[in-house]
Amino acid sequence: MIRLFSRRRRTVTPEESSLWRTVMRDVEPLPGRKSAAAPPAPSPPPVTAEPASGVPNGVPSGASGPPPAQRPAARAPLPPLEPGGMAAALDRRTDERLRRGQMDIQGRIDLHGMVQSEAHAALNAFIHRSWREQRRCVLVITGKGTYKEGGGVLHRMVPRWLNEAPLRSMVLAMHRAQSMHGGDGALYVLLKRRRDGVERGR
Hints:
6 strands; alpha+beta; 4-stranded mixed beta sheet; two-stranded antiparallel sheet
């Protein structure tokens, strides 16, 4: 059986085409025949300009892409509140009345005896509820905890929790209570006003 093999035509290189033209330059064709044409030179491959580093292909180096998404500016943190310190947004007369225990106490919570996790959750719920109900002054009882240096855990932690999100945005001021309301074992907490779902500074 005879097998036929097809032989693929080889592409002429530029060097071979140039050499052919040089050889055939001085050759004169026979009468009645045309001169042998040089084999066509292969087309050079398309030249693609390499993009600059970090610039996608096809984008001019001077062009810039879409501007990055702008993040909303972060709100400045509220200044910390310290029991016994006057809040910047509070007038002196209101601060003095709060310090002396002369404001009507419209709600109270006793955290004394709770473990830290229970007290934290209870304080969050109480402050949220009081703020939604537009209570102005509330009393938070922590206990003194004098058996430990610096007071008990809740005595130290409750002022810190009131300074942290989300409670800090609802609290305007706080002071240690007068002895008739628990003294160092309790806090007067003055809440910001809330009108039509929008909190007010005073």
